[in-house]
Amino acid sequence: MPITGGVAFGDSKSRDLDGALRFTDKEMLAHILAVKAGQYDHLIPDGTEL
After folding, report:
1. Engineered SS bond to 20: which of 8, 12, 45, 47, CB 3.0-4.6 Å?
2. Phi first, then psi: what are they for 32, rounded to 5°?
3. Quick check: 21 and 3 in contact, CB under 8 A?
């Protein structure tokens, strides 16, 4: 299902389902900035190579 602006993450194996997570441009930017700031570092085990 197309959206106007923003980003949608869906299930690539079941494209007929409308269960996509939809994010506006502002929400996506906030998420990217949080990742860059280390907000989710605690979710990655020590020693993990990315």
Report:
1. 8
2. -60, -45
3. no
Q: 43: which DSSP letter?
A: G
Give the burial string for 17-38 (b: 16+ CB within 10 Å, else e): eeeeeebeeeeeeeeeeeeeee
Mean pLDDT of 18-28: 81
The count of residues in the chain is 50
What CA–CA distance (Å, rounded) separates 19 from 30?
22
Q: Is the pTM of this model over 0.90?
A: no
Strand partners, 8: 22
C-alpha dihedral (13, 18, 23, 24), degrees to nearest 10: 130
Judge whether residue 36 has pLDDT over 70: yes
